[in-house]
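Inputs:
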Amino acid sequence: MKTEMPTIFSAKRTSFVRTSVIREILKLTVENSDMLSFAGGLPNPHLLPKDILSSVMESVVKDHSATALQYGDSSGYQALRTQIAEKLTDVYWISPDSISVTHGSQQGLDILGKMFMDSDTNVLLEDPVYLGALQAFSPYQPNFFSVPMEPDGPNFYLLEEILSQNKIHIFYANPSYQNPSTYTWSLEKRKRIASILDEKEVILIEDEAYRYLDFDGKVYPSVSSFRKRIDLTFVLGSFSKILSPGFRLGWVVVPEVYRSLFTAIKQGNDLNSNQFSQVVVSKLLERIDWKEHLRSIQTFYSEKQKILVSLLKEYIPEAKFSLPEGGMFLWVEYPKVSQKELMAGCLTNGVAMVPGSEFSPESKFSANFRMNFSFLGKEEMEEGVRRIAKVYRDINT
Amino acid sequence: MKTEMPTIFSAKRTSFVRTSVIREILKLTVENSDMLSFAGGLPNPHLLPKDILSSVMESVVKDHSATALQYGDSSGYQALRTQIAEKLTDVYWISPDSISVTHGSQQGLDILGKMFMDSDTNVLLEDPVYLGALQAFSPYQPNFFSVPMEPDGPNFYLLEEILSQNKIHIFYANPSYQNPSTYTWSLEKRKRIASILDEKEVILIEDEAYRYLDFDGKVYPSVSSFRKRIDLTFVLGSFSKILSPGFRLGWVVVPEVYRSLFTAIKQGNDLNSNQFSQVVVSKLLERIDWKEHLRSIQTFYSEKQKILVSLLKEYIPEAKFSLPEGGMFLWVEYPKVSQKELMAGCLTNGVAMVPGSEFSPESKFSANFRMNFSFLGKEEMEEGVRRIAKVYRDINT
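Outputs:
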């Protein structure tokens, strides 16, 4: 959805600024406590062990305040960068220096947009694509290309065709439990695509925000880990889904040649990431049994997903979706109704989903909705699906 | 200082990206614990009452984690926006809706740069100017104009001339205890300049990061508070100097016509500001005796300033500077030496200051250095000034 702009003085790029329906709906749910929202990508805030968090907070205030309450390095808190390099990346050239801590992975997208995208930059997106990437990149006005997604990754034939017929500079992809399609690239496609990106000299922006949310505890190797051109591949990660979005921290693995530029842009954007949060997260990573913590999150999401799946099958058997391997969403097709009408009816009846057209620069996916299952409790989910079913039946009679 | 760019693919705007010597020096001081730094604008981390902070943290984790550990409104946490509107602004049209919470006031500068600045946008700066503003604005490639600063504000005659001879779109100013000159606009100049900006229809970006750091507890009315064109004036504030830079929070007072655009850009940049920090700061504002807290900060800075002033008079009587009314810097002229040589000698001898040329798009102020007095203790300051004096004498013999 494009923002409606008043006829006021502003830079030309602002006509390309996009608002997010998700953020608008998030606002509605904050204002209206009766609204049941499948819209946001909200992790469950109770997955973080409170006792450990309390004790970490106490120790940070007591023993680490000189660091935690100060400005910090624009690339991030060194101890945290080391932990990310050791625990949360799989590319073979990794070092703490290659990690830049960002204000959520969203800021990584903005910095990379600023770094790479001019009006003559050709940027390939997945179709559908993560809406936040459209928001981050659009003001820099690149030319967008799209490759259709299949359940095991991009359609390879079409990808090859696009790369052969156009000089693509950047490929932005979200290979694991993609937002919104939930599709995960197969191991084979990861390798083949890494190889063709090397051959065609394409910069990959690999968004791995959901990397650790596999329902069975599997971790796919990143596409970047298969690349030979390690100067042309960036990997984005996030603490939002594995610890808490409240700390607002993500990171980018930055190739050596781009590090000074990345840091200089970060400085101009906001000097440095939140130092207090960085120290807290670093201490949390020291204290939490990481494998066990991830397993508990994965189990939690897996169970929530099963609940939503069985509710949809029970109340709206017409709804179509494929079963994701991980993540926090279902990508659901509601056949034979207008997306706009279903959306409006749902909001009126106190239930929210994100219309599929939001995830496409050309507003495709007019039958789909993205449904989050991580936030609502079981009873709320049931009531929510009931409300959707009622609206769906009312329209589709 | 321009970053040295590798010859690699990047957007055209990146050739305008500037690094900050301050951040480079900050990194040196982190790496070399013997380095005495007058360079950073580092507040003293011990000014925040630890007992209150501990108890606030405990209550946030215990009672407010559902809010604090979640995503939030892109414009900011509502309770905090209300407090800012009530306590920390003086423009008559204020409301919580006019406040957007940002990731430090630096992010406010980046968002406003993105919102307003094209290659044909004329931006007037103070001369010297806050380096972070140059970093934020430069990638958007506006045309910079400069108005020379006097101890009571911009030279009004030259300001009038610039505004008459050019269509200036934006004026970026830091009227209170300016960084780096330490100059403060007089009440009279505030009124006259507000009026001429109204007349010429110029957007004012008023950076009030130091607003509450007056040594005598005085608070100047903002220039924006005198403007009639309330659609053309933005005020930036910061918690970094009055609470802690570790929370990385600032705010922007945004005119109504620009609010939806500002929020949409904020979303693309990083979705929302750090929610945990916002809840903590909001609770701190509830708990701290605000007047007493500000007074203790002001007294602290006032005493630190006196110490540096007397050390400079004792060890380097040749050094020239005017006495600021507030803030955390002295703007010191070291006559008869090369800035580059003095800078290099200081770094070699374990003491850092920021060269004045950093604060000018044209690298003027080649005799000046900016010296911070808020961070170092008394003995460290003395040792630091001794080191500078030695280098100065070695060069200037």
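Remarks. Residues 290-315 of chain A form the longest helix (26 residues). Residues 70-287 of chain A form a domain with the Aspartate Aminotransferase; domain 2 fold (CATH 3.40.640.10).
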